[in-house]
Amino acid sequence: MYVMHNSEYPLSCFALFENGPCLIADANFDVLMVKLKGFFQNAKANKIESRGTRYQYCDFLVKVGTVTMGPSARGISVEVEYCPCVVANDCWNLLMEFMQSFMGSHTPGIPSVFGNKHDSIYSPGDTMAQYMELFNKIRKQQQVPVAGIR
């Protein structure tokens, strides 16, 4: 289980399970997890975060952040939201066109979260699932062993 926070939702705490549901609780969820330390152990070495700047351009919200793991930078995150739309599949083409205007060929494909949601309302838990996917990719890059030369 991964416990995550999002500055857009300061009073909420998100608990994500590997390939499972996302629990949204109040900010005191961390206190509960400390009390359950016999069952769940905190992995401080795996702390990963994205910090950056939030921009608004017309109806679009863009957040660009540096992903850090411990003291060192490991990547960049770009979050784009089209504020008037609550069903992500309805505006995916518009989001793609907007992202291509400043990301060019680095524009990502459709997130796996959308595959499960077809025509349902997008929620903050979906955003956290996408961050979890990004963070797991970055963690896996760190685990690739370097081959020694003989």
- Rough shape? globular
Helix tally equals: 4
* Poorly predicted parts: 146-150
Strand fraction equals 25-35%
Strands ordered across the widest β-sheet: 1-2-3
- Helix content bin: 25-40%
What does this structure look like?
This protein has a 3-stranded antiparallel β-sheet with strand order 1-2-3, covered by helices on one side. It has a 3-stranded antiparallel β-sheet with strand order 4-5-6. The longest helix is centred in the C-terminal third of the chain and has 20 residues, at 124-143. A hairpin with a 7-residue loop joins strand 1 and strand 2. It is built from 4 helices and 6 strands, in the order E-E-E-H-E-E-E-H-H-H. With 150 residues, it is an alpha+beta fold. The model is unreliable at 146-150 (pLDDT under 50).
